[in-house]
Amino acid sequence: MKKYPALIAFLVAFTVNIYAYDWTNDNVSIVNQAKDEDKTELKLKDETGNEFSVTYYEEIQAETAKNILKLKKNFYEWENMKVDSISFVASEGGLQISVIPKKYEYQGVDYNRYMPSGMLFTYTYALQYNFRITIESLFIRIKGDFSTETDLSKKLADAVKNPQEFVKKRDPEYLLQRIETLDDTVNKMRTALLTLHNSGFFSGPKQIEPGTINRVVDIKKLNPAITVEKILETLEKEKVKTNNQEVKLILNVYFNIFEK
């Protein structure tokens, strides 16, 4: 009976080894290997001498290993950035990638000095970046979907050149203020357009009451199929003073509806 535990342990180890990914099939050698309970850390070197590390908690699947090798190759082929080290952590959620540049020079500026912790990427079905740079006592988050090295370099250049403006443009509250400002501008243009066209044969342009505009817009939004006549009937019941021409103008400007 005492032999069974040893036999089971042997079978488990044998099964794991069967499914363990063989890096040598891709001309990658294992420089160092460390295991700590369920965690495995590998230091690897490819055929060109480029080193990288991989940490995983369950055996690496072939697809994951292929993604690691592809990403490693791409990072080492960057023109503006030269790699000092790359670390991959594999989990069920995908890959976390830490890239520490040896240098990152773009258009004569060394951006590596703004990256005290390097660059952090994640990969599931696409590559994304999310890391911070430090400039003028500001911690600026550089975040987005990776498309090309050039696009990321341009974003870094914008952040370093004008950090405060860079932060403002990406701040949700600032963007909301810009949208509200834009809405105000559009509404003013609409009001001006309504005033310009609200004129009779013997009278000049006349401004439509803001309350009337808002009520017509609300009625139309609640019932998109409603006619001008029905809108006028509703407004008459509510004792809102307006006329056929004004309602048609409002529908024209706000909904691009032209009724005869």
Name some characteristics of this structure:
260 residues, alpha+beta, 2 domains, 9-stranded mixed beta sheet, 8 helices
Main sheet makeup? 9 strands, mixed
Structural class: alpha+beta
Q: Which bin fits the share of residues in helices?
A: 40-55%
How many DSSP E strands?
9
Low-confidence stretches are: 7-18
Number of helices: 8
- Rg (C-alpha, Å): 32 Å
Number of domains: 2
What distance lies between the first and last C-alpha atoms, to the nearest angstrom? 96 Å
Tell me the fraction of residues in β-strands, as a range.
25-35%
Shape: elongated
Q: How would you state the average pLDDT, rounded?
A: 81
The helix/strand order is HEEEHEEEEEEHHHHHH
Commentary on this structure:
The chain is of the alpha+beta class and 260 residues long. It contains eight helices and nine strands. Strands 1, 2, 3, 4, 5, 6, 7, 8 and 9 form a nine-stranded mixed sheet that branches. About 5% of the residues have low confidence.
